[in-house]
Amino acid sequence: MIDYKTDADGIATLSWNVTDRPTNVMNEASIAAFEAAVKRAIGDPMVKGVIVTSSRKDFVAGGDLDLIRRIDGIEASMAASGPVSAILRRLETSGKPFVAAINGTALGGGLELALACHRRIAAADPGIRLGLPEVTLGLLPAAGGTQRLPRMIGIGKALPYLLEGRKVAPEAALEAGIIDEVVPPGELLTRARAWLLAAGEGAAIKSWDAKGFRFPGGGPQTPGPMQIFFGASAALMSKTQGLYPAPAAILACVYDGCQVDIDTGLRIEQRQFARLATSAATKNMIRLLFFSLGEANRLADRPRDVPLRDYSRVGVLGAGMMGAGLAYVCAQADLDVVLLDVNVEAAEKGKAYGAKVMDALVAKGRLSAAQREAALDRVRCTADYRDLAGCQLVIEAVFENREVKAEVMRRAEAAMDADALLASNTSTLPITSLARNSQRPERFLGLHFFSPIEKMPLIEVIRGERTSEATIAHALDFAKRIRKTPIVVNDCPAFYANRAFGMYPYEAMTMLGEGVAPALIENAGRMAGMPMPPLALIDEFSIELLYKAMRQARADQGEAYREQPQDAVLTAMVEQLDRPGRKAGKGFYDYPKEGGKRLWPGLAKMFPPVPEQPTLDEVRERLMFSQSLEAARCVAEGIVSPRDADVGALLGWGFPAVLGGVLGQIDTLGAEAFVEACDRLARRHGERFEVPVALREMARARGRYHPV
Ligand code: NAD
C-alpha cells in the first residue's frame, strides 16, 4: 500500500500505492500501512527528511465513503477518523521535514495529508485538482483541514474552500497560499529532494507550533474575522435554511478550534465530524449523491448480455425548444445530428439556438471558437426524411399532438435503418399508446428530457409494453454517451418525474383554495429545502399550461373525469382573473417592470385566508409528503426502482439531497411514522393521502427502501 525507499542522502520516499481500489483511498489498511511507514521514517536515525508522494495517477484520495456510511455511533466514528488525524499530527511535530510531492489530484484527505507536511510542491498540470470537497457530501475535513488551512492562509480565505468545497488547479492553489511551489511534472521529486537537503533548522516546525504565532489576517476574535463569521452564518442560513448540518459544523470547527491550540482544535474537529458521520442527513447525502448517483451514471442495472451500442449519428425530429436543445447536446457530445423540421428554415432556427448557447460559452472562455464551429458543423438541417439513413437513434420532439406524432413516426420509420431506435420525447402521451403507430414497437421507447436540456442532467428512459430489453440497454448507452443520468421508468400517465413532482404545485394550489395564506405556503416550500416556492414555480412554467392540461384531461375522460382539488384555483386564475403566469407578467405574483416580484395582494380577495391557519409544519408536511407518497405509489406499481426514484427527484426537480430523495425522506422519518402521518393527513384532507398497501406492509415489517 505504501512503497518505502531510502537513499544514501538520508531521504525516505513514502509512495502511496493502493492497488486494490481505483484510487489511493484512505481506509483501515492503507492508514495502518502509512502509519507504519511514517513511524519507521521518524524512528530511523539515518533518515533526514521524507517525501510523501503517490505511485498512481492521482495523489491521495479521501476517506473510504463506504466505511464512513457504515459508521454506527460516536465511538465508532472517533475510531475511524482518529488515527488519520493523529498520524498527521505526529509527522507534523516529528522534528523531521516532510514534503508532499503532489503528482496528481489531491482532494479531501489527500490534501489534508499535504497540509500536514512542511512543504507542498505540485506538478504543473492544469488537470490536477486540489480541494476539500467533504462539505458537498455532508461531511467535514476531519484530518486537520479545518484547523490547518485557516492557520495557513487566514480564516477569510480558508472558509470558501471549507464551506463550498472549492477545487482549484495547482497555479490557483499556489496563489492562494495552499501550496508552496509548482514545478514541471518531471522535476517533482528532484525539487522535493533539493528542498529537503537544503532544509535548515526550523524547516520542520509549523508556524502554529512556534512561539508568538499570529493568525494571518487576524484571529477569530479580531474585528475582520468576526465580521466574516457573522456574514457567513447569515449567508449559510439563507442558503440552506439550516437544513444542511455540515457547513454549520465546519464554521463551528473554525470558530471554536482557532481560539485554542491546534491539538485541542483537532479534537474539536473530531467531535464535530462524529456528529455529522452519525447523522441521518449525512448518511442520506452520501448514499444519494455518491452511491446511487454513481450507480445510475455507471449504468449499474444495464443488462450485461446486450452488446454495447456505439453512436455516431442521431436524428432529431422537430427543432422547437426541446429539439433545438437536443441537437445542441448531441453535437457537443461529438455526434453527427440530423435536425429535421417542416422546412429547412425551421430546422435552421433550432440550430441557431445551439449557436447562441455556445456564443455565451465562448465569451466566458469555456469553449473555443473552433470547438463551436466544429459542433455546429455536425448539425445538418433538413426537411427530408431520407437524411435519417445511417442514424442509430431518432428522437421525435414535434408538437404534443397524437396525429402529428403518428405521421412523423410513420415517415421516419420508412427512412430509418432497420436496427435503429425510435424514441419519443413526449411529456404526456403514454409510450405504449404511441407505439401503436410503430412498425417495430420493440425498438420504440420514450426518452423524456427536461427543459432546458443543456442544463438538466436527467433522462427518463421509458419502457413501453413492447419495448425490448436490448432497446432499453442501448438507450442507456446513449444517455451515457451524451453525459446525462438515466433512470428507467415503466410507462404510465405522466411517467415518474412529473407525476411525483406534480404533487408539490398541486398541493400548494389546493391549500390556497382552502384559504391557507399564500406567504405561509411559499415559506414552507422554501424552508423545506425545495429550490423554489411552489406558487412562484407554477408562475414560471405557467398557470395556463396546467389549466390547459386540466381541460384536455376533462375532454379526454368525459364523464369519468374526477374533479381535482386544485382545479378551481386554476380555473379562477385563468378564466376569472386572467393571470396566466410569469410570461404575461401576472400570476400568483406581480412582476413589476423595475424587477423583482411580490405575491399578488388580490389573492387574499379571491382566496380569503381562513382565521385558523395551519402550522408551518403542517403545510410543509403536505407539500413534501405528497411527493414521497406519489413516488411510493410509483414504486408499488412497479413504475420505478427506489434508487431511480430518488435519483430522479434529485436531478429532475431538485428535491433536497439532505432528505436522501423522496423515498429517502420516508426512510429518514421511519416508514411507520410516515404512514401514521399520512393516515392523519388522509382523515383531514382526503384520499389523496391514502397510503399504498405495499408501503403499509413495509411499515409494519419495519422495512426501508434503502439499506441503512
Ligand atoms: P415546440 O412547439 O417548441 O417545437 C415543436 C417543433 O416541432 C416545432 O419546431 C415544429 O415546427 C416542429 N414540428 C411540428 N410538426 C412537425 C412535423 N410534422 N414535422 C416536423 N416537425 C414538426 O415544442 P417543444 O416544447 O420543443 O416540445 C416538443 C416535444 O417535447 C413535445 O412532445 C413535448 O411534450 C415534449 N417535451 C417538452 C418539454 C418542455 O419543457 N417544453 C419537456 C419535456 C418534453
Fold and architecture overview:
The chain contains 30 helices and 19 strands. With 708 residues, it is an alpha/beta fold. The chain has 3 domains: 2-278, 2-enoyl-CoA Hydratase, Chain A, domain 1, CATH 3.90.226.10; 313-491, Rossmann fold, CATH 3.40.50; 499-700, N-(1-d-carboxylethyl)-l-norvaline Dehydrogenase, domain 2 (Orthogonal Bundle). The protein has an 8-stranded mixed sheet, sandwiched between helices. It has a 6-stranded mixed sheet with strand order 1-2-3-4-6-9, sandwiched between helices. The chain is globular, with a radius of gyration of 29 Å. The two termini are 30 Å apart. Bound molecules: nicotinamide-adenine-dinucleotide. Nicotinamide-adenine-dinucleotide (NAD) binds at residues 317-323, 340-342, 346, 397-400, 404, 407-408, 425-427, 449, 451.
Number of contiguous helices: 30
Beta fraction of the residues? 5-15%
Strand order of the largest sheet: 12-11-10-13-14-15-16-17
Structural class: alpha/beta
- Name of the top-level CATH class of the largest domain: Alpha Beta
CATH fold node name of the largest domain: 2-enoyl-CoA Hydratase, Chain A, domain 1
Q: List the uncertain runs.
A: none
Distance between the termini: 30 Å
Mean residue pLDDT: 96
Largest sheet: 8 strands, mixed
Gyration radius from CA atoms, angstroms: 29 Å
Shape descriptor reads globular
Helix content: 40-55%
Bound molecules: nicotinamide-adenine-dinucleotide
